[in-house]
Design a protein that fits this description.
alpha/beta, globular, RbsD_FucU, EC 5.4.99.62, cytoplasm, D-ribose pyranase
Length: 139
């Protein structure tokens, strides 16, 4: 049996295939997923699992070098934005590297999702609860 934290086979598989700078999206229930991008749907019902629950599990398994967030989160979901930044800060300490955070418009964000290896959909139903994680290396 796998010893890592991620039990979901699809998530585990996509993380294991990521190379340096490859990206993976964790999103809310409403983000459109491009047709040619793998969708890993974790949503069970409204709010379950939450965006942060999914993100915490994914980042426990994935080495993160940078992240892209829609700038609209600052105004429309400031509490989640603060929680997200705290999580990234803790992740930096745990990984021992700095994580660059870039902000783009939500429209640009949606375009960037097409370049990701997969989109992991949470049950989150709060605005702009989305992040693109760019893979780092562990050496």
């Amino acid at each position: 049996m796998k010893k890592g934290r991620v039990l979901n086979a699809d998530i585990s598989s996509v993380i294991s295939r990521l190379g340096h700078t490859d990206s993976l999206v964790v999103c809310d229930a409403g983000l459109p997923v491009p047709r040619n991008t793998q969708r890993i749907d974790m949503a069970l019902t409204q709010g379950v699992p939450s965006f942060m629950q999914v993100l915490e599990v994914v980042t426990a398994e994935m080495q993160v070098e940078s992240a892209i967030i829609a700038s609209e989160i600052k105004q429309h979901n400031p509490q989640l934005h603060e929680t997200l930044l705290k999580h990234i800060e803790q992740l930096q300490q745990h990984q021992g590297n700095s994580i660059e955070v870039r902000y783009v418009t939500h429209e640009q964000f949606k375009k960037h999702t097409a370049d990701s290896h997969a989109v992991i959909r949470s049950g989150e139903c709060s605005p702009f609860a989305n992040i693109i994680l760019c893979a780092g290396v562990t050496f």
